UniProtKB/TrEMBL annotation, chain A:
Keyword Protein biosynthesis recorded: yes
Key words of the record: Initiation factor, Protein biosynthesis
Originating organism: Citrus sinensis (Sweet orange)
Taxonomic superkingdom: Eukaryota
Protein name: Eukaryotic translation initiation factor 3 subunit I
From TrEMBL, chain B:
Domain RRM: 60-137
Cited HAMAP family: eIF3b
A Gene Ontology cellular-component term: eukaryotic translation initiation factor 3 complex
Biological source species: Citrus sinensis (Sweet orange)
Gene3D superfamilies hit by this protein: 3.30.70.330, YVTN repeat-like/Quinoprotein amine dehydrogenase (2.130.10.10)
Pfam families: eIF2A (PF08662), RRM_1 (PF00076)
Descriptive protein name: Eukaryotic translation initiation factor 3 subunit B
Top-rank taxon: Eukaryota
Job description of the protein: RNA-binding component of the eukaryotic translation initiation factor 3 (eIF-3) complex, which is involved in protein synthesis of a specialized repertoire of mRNAs and, together with other initiation factors, stimulates binding of mRNA and methionyl-tRNAi to the 40S ribosome. The eIF-3 complex specifically targets and initiates translation of a subset of mRNAs involved in cell proliferation. Component of the eukaryotic translation initiation factor 3 (eIF-3) complex, which is involved in protein synthesis and, together with other initiation factors, stimulates binding of mRNA and methionyl-tRNAi to the 40S ribosome.
Disordered: region residues: 628-647, 665-702
Comp. bias (Acidic residues): 676-702
Subcellular location: Cytoplasm
Length: 248, 702
């Protein structure tokens, strides 16, 4: 099994999960941020940050069956979004790539032609940086979380905005339960502001929402810092949260 | 203020462009004609008004008349009396003598006006008393037609019912909120657990809004002056009041008059600011009286607040907007609104008076004079009847360091908090002088707290009641004590009802109808709230509105609003609670500046009628309970309906996605080189029975 990672050291790497060995390094001219394998694992999408004069970009790489045959060439490079692209994932059947980031716009690109197919509407879409994106298990819909204190549910094929979940804090991480109709949002303040304010002012909670009714069901308290990543345990019954905290 | 938001944007833009805002001469900025940058000015037609400063170019010239007619030789002497430069004394070409009047030009119209005020009526000698007028006024007087023409008869157009909001069938109250650039008036619909909009407008005001005391009008403040709005079902502009650069406003309690205030920088920076105060008749917009002078004259008794004076400068009293009074140096100037002049044409002279306060209901002023001459002359509190200026009651107080007066809302009692020096003069202790105003000879009672060294943090009378609450103590969690002026056991004596120890509270909010109180911990306590029943002396609920900055009861005493304003960066918005501490609903609004309930006028019911209704409350409330029940059922039904339709829509979407997923199955398999690994992505829900042994009991058969 292969793992792909992206790093601020301006590379993305392929690893053998069983042995832990590095298989290949893709080099970029700016920090690599988001990575995702396509269905069938023959393609991967990697995003790079804006750096000096370079704009951010989305790179599509072919993944060879045998690491020895791996090439560093990009099959496709997509440009256009302003600011950082925080997440890029594959759409159903790898026909599309979905990207979201600092300019608050969700975009759907055609993988074949590289053309921009759809863009989220400025009025109804997010108003601030989209920090996170989580796909449904079957890839039919996905959830975005934003610093505008909301999360939105979109149709992956049509980019129709289906649901909006409103909270009181900027959202840093989102995830959907594989079993139940739950959506979890994690957030809080920007990391840079954490040490200068009361821990209650940042209100670092993970909030559970009813996916369909858009209502808050409950929250999990007890964090010292803003939540940056969330994931459900594959059995759908519990989730792990990663958060930032400082001990002085 | 909304200005802050705009200023931040301007600052950011200036920084981006590398412009130092301090170097920019804002007055020289001219918008291209017809360009308004998309910001709608409410008062565009004000620019066409001719009671604004007329751009005649002569606004800074005054005419001094009744000068002695002098030959040229004496000119310099006369000129010396009047002014140095900018003076023109016309001369009769035949006699070479002055004509008896001159023109003086100043740098600004404001200076010219000030000069006119100061010199009009100046007695040069018995025969020559200066008559000084603005040059532009002559034009106005010349235009008066010689023939008197009777005024046009305008047909009567009945105005809207400005009190319509009081007749709301659901007996709801309104409130106004300001957030960002929007000002909105909404109904508090507690049954439906949400506010219902009445009227909303962006840039409705240029700084803040304020209700008139009986709730009839909403006042807005702009660069050119103030305006009031009202109507039957919406808010129309009813009247405008011109007052350039107005900063503060105040209504008379009966809403007849509006007082506006502005402060201007003097031409000589070492002088105090120039203050302009106008008193308008609210309905006609006419200026009844104006006051102009230096800020020193208006800031007696301490400067303070945003504008440098303690506002309101004029305090109203005597009921029916009869009197208004201002604290001056060694005097209290009391004016009456019949003629807008001082009562008896002179102020009430009180040597060293520090503070005064009107009774809320009667024409009585309470005043405080501090200690003088190192203890030779004791401090005193006096009650003075207006207009007779007769002293009704007086008490000398010794070793006083400070004093504060609190009137009870029905004018029944006056509490004077007195801070006294201890014998060593190193610290102070506090006591209260309690005046029973409505009783014969106004008896005074002295009250000391159980621990008289306790610092007093807050004091509040129960509205319309006989009780008061005090927050006192030096520890981080002070105590709260309740007293009554009149209990069954002690009819004529103040007695303590209870002391609550160690509370997280620093502010008191009585319900406007008494009986209930919110003990609030604002600022450092971060929004602790305790809803307390003073009749039963028990807590009804404790709650929290994190970081709350304001607490306000609605005028009926049924609901409490708590708000977090833009003093804080996050959590801006307001909560509505029931009187007993149940949270009804919550609204978040970024950049939240104001929340104000719309006041109600006092009830027209006689006390007898009110008693009758209280007795038969069950009968009256049956009807409302039934309505509440209906609404509540309706709400649940609506809620259920909404959920059903949301679930249905979702089901449709899910099945659509499932269908597509199925269709694409083959292609997916191909992408995986023939591996049918879809199943790995799917999760199975299994119901598992778990047996857990709870308890084991043994039954032994005999």
């Amino acid at each position: 099994m292969t793992l792909i990672t992206g790093s601020a050291d301006q590379t993305a790497k392929l690893w053998n999960v069983e042995t832990g060995a590095q298989l290949f390094t893709f080099n970029f001219d700016s920090p690599a941020r988001s990575v995702d394998f396509a269905v069938g694992d023959k393609l991967a999408v990697i995003t790079t940050d804006p750096f000096m004069e370079l704009n951010s970009a989305i790179h599509v790489k072919r993944i060879a069956g045998d690491p020895a045959d791996q090439s560093g060439e990009s099959v496709l490079i997509l440009k256009g979004p302003q600011g950082r692209i925080n997440r890029a994932v594959w759409g159903p059947l790898n026909r599309t790539i979905i990207s979201a980031g600092e300019d608050a716009i969700v975009r759907i690109w055609d993988t074949e032609t590289g053309k921009l197919l759809k863009e989220s509407d400025k009025e109804t879409g997010h108003k601030k940086t989209i920090t996170s994106l989580a796909k449904a298990a079957d890839g039919s819909h996905f959830l975005t979380g934003s610093l505008d204190k909301s999360a939105k549910l979109w149709d992956a094929r049509t980019l129709e905005l289906i649901k909006t979940y409103v909270t009181e804090r900027p959202v840093n991480a989102v995830t959907m339960s594989p079993l139940l109709d739950h959506v979890v949002l994690g957030g809080g303040q920007d990391a840079s502001a954490v040490t200068t304010t009361d821990h209650r002012a940042g209100k670092f909670e993970a909030k559970f929402f009813d996916k369909i009714l858009q209502e808050e069901i409950g929250g999990v308290k007890g964090h010292f810092g803003p939540i940056n990543a969330l994931a459900f345990n594959p059995d759908g019954k519990s989730s792990i949260r990663s958060y930032l905290f400082f001990v002085i | 203020m909304g200005d802050v938001l705009i200023m931040n944007e301007i600052d950011a833009t200036a920084n981006r462009l590398g412009i130092d805002l301090l170097q920019v001469d804002l007055d020289s900025i001219q918008l291209p004609p017809g360009e308004d940058l998309g910001i709608i000015s409410d008062d565009e037609d004000v620019y066409e008004d001719d009671d604004q400063e007329v751009e005649s170019g002569f606004g800074n010239i005054i005419v001094v008349d009744n000068l002695p007619v002098v030959p040229k030789e004496k000119f310099e002497k006369l000129e010396g009396v009047i002014k140095e430069d900018g003076l023109w004394m016309p001369v009769d070409p035949e006699t070479q003598k002055s004509l008896g009047y001159c023109f003086i030009e100043y740098n600004t119209p404001q200076e010219a006006e000030l000069a006119k005020e100061k010199t009009n009526g100046y007695k040069l000698d018995r025969a020559h008393i200066f008559a000084v007028n603005m040059f532009d006024d002559f034009d106005k007087f010349m235009k008066v037609p010689d023939e008197w023409a009777p005024p046009e008869h305008k047909p009567y157009t009945p105005g809207e019912n400005l009190q319509k909001w009081l007749t709301d069938e659901k007996a709801r109250d309104q409130f106004v909120i300001r957030s960002g650039t929007d000002t909105e008036v909404l109904w508090n619909d507690a049954r439906h657990l949400k506010p219902e909009p009445v009227y909303k407008r962006s840039y409705w005001t240029e700084s803040f809004v304020q209700w008139s005391p009986l709730g009839t009008y909403l006042a807005t403040v702009h660069r050119q002056g103030a305006a009031v709005w009202g109507g039957a079902n919406t808010f129309n502009r009813l009247m405008r009041y011109a007052h350039p650069q107005v900063k503060l406003i105040d209504f008379s309690p009966g809403e007849k008059y509006l007082v506006t205030y502005s402060s201007h920088e003097p031409s000589n920076p070492r002088d105090a600011n120039r203050v302009v105060i106008n008193i308008f008749d609210v309905r006609t917009g006419k200026v009844m009286r104006d006051f102009k002078g230096s800020a020193d004259e208006f800031a007696v008794g301490g400067t303070g607040g945003v504008a440098g004076v303690s506002w309101p400068v004029f305090r109203w009293g005597g009921g029916k907007d009869k009197y208004f009074a201002k604290l001056g140096k060694n005097m209290i100037s009391v004016y009456e609104t019949e003629s807008f002049t001082l009562i008896d044409k002179k102020s009430l002279k009180v040597e060293n008076v520090m503070d005064f306060s009107w009774s809320p209901t009667d024409p009585i002023i309470s005043l405080f004079v501090p200690e003088l001459g190192g203890g030779n002359q004791p401090a005193r509190v006096s009650l003075v009847q207006i207009p007779s200026k007769e002293e009704l009651r007086q008490k000398n107080l010794f070793s006083v360091s400070d004093c504060k007066m609190y009137w009870q809302s029905s004018g029944d009692y006056l509490a004077v908090k007195v801070d006294r020096y201890t014998k060593t003069k190193k610290s102070t202790y506090t006591g209260f002088e309690l005046f029973r105003i409505k009783e014969r000879d106004i008896p005074i009672e002295v009250l000391e707290l159980d621990n008289k060294n306790d610092k007093i943090i807050a004091f509040a009378w129960e509205p319309k009641g006989h009780r008061f609450a005090v927050i006192h103590g030096d520890s981080p969690r002070p105590d709260i004590s309740f007293y009554s002026m009149r209990t069954a056991q002690h009819a004529g004596r103040v007695s303590k009802l209870t002391t609550l120890k160690g509370k997280q509270a620093n502010a008191l909010f009585w319900s406007p109808s008494g009986r209930f109180i919110v003990l609030a911990g604002l600022k450092g306590f971060n929004g602790q709230l305790e809803f307390y029943n003073v009749d039963e002396l028990e807590t009804m609920a404790t709650a929290e509105h994190f970081m709350a900055t304001d607490v306000e009861w609605d005028p009926t005493g049924r609901y409490v609003a708590t708000a977090v304003t833009s003093v804080h960066e996050m959590e801006n918005g307001f909560n509505i609670w029931s009187f007993n501490g149940k949270l009804l609903y919550r609204t978040l609004k970024d950049h939240f500046f104001q929340f104000l309930w719309r006041p109600r006028p006092p009830s027209f019911l006689t006390p007898e009628k009110e008693e009758e209704i209280a007795k038969n409350l069950k009968k009256y409330s049956k009807k409302y309970e039934a309505e509440d029940q209906d609404v509540s059922m309706q709400l649940s039904e609506q809620e259920r309906e909404k959920r059903r339709s949301l679930k249905n829509e979702w089901e449709k979407k899910i099945s659509e996605w499932k269908r597509l997923h199925e269709e694409e199955k083959m292609e997916r398999q191909m992408l995986r080189d023939g591996e049918a690994s879809d199943e790995e992505e799917e999760y199975e829900a299994k119901e598992v029975e778990v047996e857990e042994v709870l308890d084991v009991t043994e039954e032994v058969e005999e």
